[in-house]
Write a structure and sequence with these properties.
Elements (H helix, E strand, L loop, with lengths): L1 E8 L8 E8 L4 E5 L6 H8 L7 E6 L2 E2 L7 E4 L11 H5 L1 H5 L6 H10 L15 H15 L3 E5 L7 H18 L2 E6 L2 H7 L2 E6 L2 E6 L8 H15 L2
Parallel strand pairs: 3-8, 3-9, 6-7, 7-8
Antiparallel strand pairs: 1-2, 1-4, 4-5, 9-10
Helix pairs in contact: 5-6
Length: about 240
């Protein structure tokens, strides 16, 4: 279980994007962090991933303090974090190489085929479309098989049709190993489609909403859930 307990982050200029946030996510579940632009969603994800040091509070995973040194954390940034001088294949296997983690050809091929990257393995990122870069970044974090998967608005730069396809590919890959996952988004529809729980960040507070509609998209439940989310966002 991922537990965030009374978390506060303060920047060097004394700006505090959020304070005293607490929430929990069960092992093997997906949580979507939802909020308006500039509210601190990416900052929260970076604090959980160990990129930013919290000023106060604790973060634990499966009853142990969460640290990059003790846990495998797969982090996918908004710009996908691909190295332009490395091929698609080299980018995909990079996390495993750095952490000296092996993988079988069968697992590698399954991820590659699911994301339809077979013909791009020797290509470089500069010739890829946004959707292709997104699939390469997803392949990297899923091949890594992390204890915790953190995705920062992974589909925000994609057009509507490509975004829907990418979301479905994400669900397909996630269902294979079900890593505990936190995904930042600014889309209510995306949060409802991809999250067991929706964590609404607003005015230095966080509201945890259970999503009984996860991946099923029942119209009446979606409508009711959207109303709750809009109320929490004060829209």
């Amino acid at each position: 279980m991922l537990i965030v307990d009374h978390l506060t982050v303060q920047y060097n200029d004394s700006t505090i994007p959020f304070r005293d946030l607490s929430f929990a996510l069960k092992e093997g579940e997906t949580g979507c962090i939802l909020g308006l632009s500039g509210i601190g969603k990416s900052t929260l994800l970076k604090a959980i991933g160990g990129i930013l040091k919290p000023s106060f509070g604790t973060i634990s995973l499966n009853h142990c303090p969460l640290t990059p040194a003790q846990h495998l954390i797969g982090y996918m940034s908004q710009d996908y974090g691909l190295y332009p001088w490395k091929t698609v294949k080299e980018n995909i296997i990079l996390l495993n190489k750095v952490h000296k983690r092996s993988f079988t050809a069968e697992v590698f091929n399954e991820v590659i085929e699911t994301l339809n990257l077979q013909d791009l393995l020797s290509a470089y990122p500069n010739i890829l479309s946004g959707g292709q870069k997104q699939r390469v970044a997803l392949a990297r974090v899923f091949l890594f098989e992390p204890d915790l998967l953190l995705l920062d608005e992974p589909f925000s730069s994609l057009d509507e049709i490509t975004r829907s396809t990418a979301q479905n590919l994400f669900l397909m890959l996630w269902k294979k190993n079900k890593p505990t996952t936190l995904l930042v988004t600014h889309s209510i529809d995306e949060a409802i489609k991809l999250g067991h729980y929706i964590f609404v960040l607003n005015d230095e507070k966080i509201e945890s909403i259970f999503n009984p509609n996860f991946s099923s998209q029942d119209p009446e439940k979606v409508k009711s859930l959207k109303t709750d989310i809009v109320n929490y966002l004060n829209l």
